[in-house]
Amino acid sequence: MDSELLGTLEERVARRTLRMAAIEAIGPLTMLAGVIWAIAQPYRLAILHPHGKGFYDWLAQPPLLVVLVGVFFAGVIAPGIIEDLRGARKR
Amino acid sequence: MTPRAEIVHWLFATGFLLLGLLLLAEAIVGRDVWRLRPWRTYLWPSLAFGLGVFLWPVSVFFTNSTLHMVAHASWAETAMVAGAAQLALVRGKLKSRYWTLAVSASMAISGLAFLIHEQNPWLFSRAAFLHHALGWTLLVAAIFPIGQTLRPRAFGWNAGFAMSWVTVAVLLYCDRDVAPIFGHLSPLAGAPK
Predict the structure, then answer these.
(1) Which structural domain, as residue segments, surrounds residue A30?
(2) Which of A91, B62, B108, B135 sits CB 3.0–4.6 Å from B114 for a disulfide?
(3) Predicted confidence (pLDDT) per residue in A37-90, tens digit
(4) Is the CB of B37 inside 8 Å of chain A's CB atoms?
(5) A77–B13 CB contact, under 8 Å
(6) CA-wise closest residue to B101 among B57, B59, B41, B161
(7) Minimal Cα–Cα distance from B7 to chain A, Å?
């Protein structure tokens, strides 16, 4: 087999693996950012500081919203992309 | 019973964060893989359009001056135009890739609206600082869709565009109605919350 072609294929596989790792990391990293924020500024969470908080304070707790976005990405968006990348690899 | 302005900003920040992450994922895997599933193709243009739609009630019900209302309405319009142009492009109703420049124009107009409607100097309060920061961020980031138009597959332009929205989200999450910035708060701004 042409060694140049083999090198190119190996590079492609490595790039695809890197892409899969990056996609898999986006959700958990976003969740981690939300958790670190919650630890750094616990007063922005109505759960931890419920005194005097209204309906909207419970609805929109910024660190939790960030975690929620991470969960949505990891649970809904990432699996399909990973599957498609695996499919593209097989092809 | 209406939410405070800062809460509305945080909810929009959540939408922009998701928008940024979707764009980042598309930049990482490339357009061909991203478009293997049709629903994914429509995801971020629909989200941009939806954010524009939700900005209308904000501009009608949550603004306290004409200038403020006009600025919010301009963000609503430009977000809807950018989202609609992208929806038409992915649907095939629009053919020319130069329609991507609509996103660039939208970001530039939005950035200018931020800067023009903020009447207080940078260090007046955190909200004033963030308005300036958001305005300049959008103005500078308007270059990314231009790059995407010229070189649609270049990772740098696509990732830059995505991270611009993540930055916008971070700035919106930092917003407080009345709070100091860098330890400074104008006595005219009111009592810190």
Answers:
(1) 3-90
(2) B135
(3) 999 999 999 999 898 888 999 999 999 999 999 999 999 999 999 999 998 766
(4) yes
(5) no
(6) B161
(7) 6
Statement: residue B143 has pLDDT above 90:
yes
Residue B173 touches partner A, C-beta closer than 8 Å: yes
Residue A4 has pLDDT above 70, yes or no: no
Structural tokens at position B137 = 């961020």
Q: Taking CB atoms and an 8 Å limit, are B7 and A73 in contact across chains?
A: no
Terminal-to-terminal C-alpha distance of chain A: 19
**What's phi and psi for B72, nearest 5 deg?**
-65, -40
Rg (CA), chain B: 17
Chain B residue numbers touching A72 (CB-CB < 8 A) = 18
Domains of chain B: 5-189 (1.25.40)
Count of domains forming chain A: 1
Report the pLDDT value the prediction gives residue A39, as an integer from 0 to 100.
Answer: 96
Task: Specify the pLDDT at position B30.
Answer: 95
Top pLDDT among B190 and A64 is at A64
**Pairs across A and B, CB distance < 8 A:** 64
Q: What is the number of alpha carbons within 13 Å of residue A63 lying toward its C-beta?
A: 17
Kindly report whether the global pTM for this prediction surpasses the value 0.90: yes
